[in-house]
Amino acid sequence: MPVFSYKSTDPSGKVVTGSLEASNEREVVRHLHEMGNIPIRITEGRNVNENLLNRFNVGLTRLFSRVSTREVLMFTQDLAALLSAGLPLDRALSVLIDVAEKERFKEIISEILKSVQGGSYLSDALAKYPRAFSDFYVSMIRAGEAGGVLEKVLERLGESLETAQDLTDYIKSALVYPIFLLLVAGMSIIVLMTFVIPKFSMLFSDMGGAIPWSTKILLALSEALRGYWWAMILLILALYAAFLRYLKTPYGRLTVDKFKISAPLIGTVIRQIEVARFARTLGTLTQSGVPILEALNLVRGIIGNKIVAGFMENVYERVKTGGRLSSPLSEIGIFPPLAIQMITVGEETGRLDDMLLRVAENFEKIVKNKVKGLISMLEPAMILVMGLVVGFIVVSMLMAIFSMNDMPF
User: Fold this and answer.
1) Residue 393's closest CA among 223, 210, 193?
2) Residues 155 and 80 sit within 8 Å (Cβ to Cβ)
3) Maximum distance among all Cα pairs of the chain, rounded to whole angstroms
4) Rounded to an integer, what distance in angstroms lies between the CA atom of residue 16 and that of residue 64?
5) Cβ pair 9, 1 in contact under 8 A
6) Domain residues of the chain, as ranges?
7) Which residues touch 211 (CB under 8 Å, ≥6 apart)?
8) pLDDT tens-digit profile of 111-121?
9) What is the pLDDT of residues 162-206, one digit of tens each?
10) What phi and psi values does residue 235 have, to the nearest 5 degrees?
11) 152-409 topology per CATH
12) pTM recorded for the entire structure
């Protein structure tokens, strides 16, 4: 039977953690209720790769001391669970202060609790921390407060954040092996160039013009790497800093974003990621009662690619004047015909929010399959390139050794 880890509150309000063997989550919830506890978070044991990836992500988060998306996700799901169990908002926030793992996030929740106890709306308290809670998040909470369905909105928000986080984690985990392979290949070539090839340079020093051209290039590169490695590192850092500075300019950001969505292979995946993000965000907002124009305005600010965000300006203006959402989306050339057809059906049947969420689900699956396919092609390509580079080094050395037989003695 699978093992489930849980966090719950006992009748006195104390946070209790532990693990149980059960056939499913419902059985764990039933067992906790029998103990008189209120479930906060229940997670099934994950595989080794996922645990390593999560530890890596948590380590990076702690290193930079900022609130991560995963922390906000856990906060949202836990708050939804506590409010659904009947706890008042202030007591639920008090419990979440104890549950939070990072001191910085504990401080933020404590300040939010003080604001709520002082008479502020939860949305207004969250809006004071835009680096942790986005405009999308705050607008969802505000819509839930206005409609008196805060618990339901928190559940939808948690589902939306979890889906987005799962997609991000999937892409990260898929890239772990290629990045590791790239690092190993780079280190192997550096070792060959700095330690192995210099051993042969003394042997070939008396050969002069008899050395093949490929060996001469290799020896020159080896000498440059050994003598000017510090200059190469400085050059790489300078180029990286210049690129970041260029990226901060409006023209530079537009140029890079345009390249992203038009690049071969990767461009298609990036466009599909933006389609899924747009559809899920807009669908979640409209499903929670946010007006379509306000939702489109929020989506426009959330989209990371400036080219796609610029297209959203036209979509917003067209819908503002009474047009349908599907018409301007079909004209910008980013949304595939399948997505347009599904959105059109949603508008005609009055179920736009449901169809947008279905579009998001479909394209998230498509993105996962595309990433899996690209990685499956990337790995053998990297191995092939590494083999060609190492083969060039070995053949160049062997050609020089064989050339020694042609030297007059």
Assistant:
1) 193
2) yes
3) 97
4) 29
5) no
6) 1-45, 152-409
7) 204, 219, 400, 403
8) 999 998 888 88
9) 887 888 888 888 888 888 888 888 888 888 888 888 877 766 666
10) -65, -45
11) Receptor-associated Protein (1.20.81)
12) 0.66
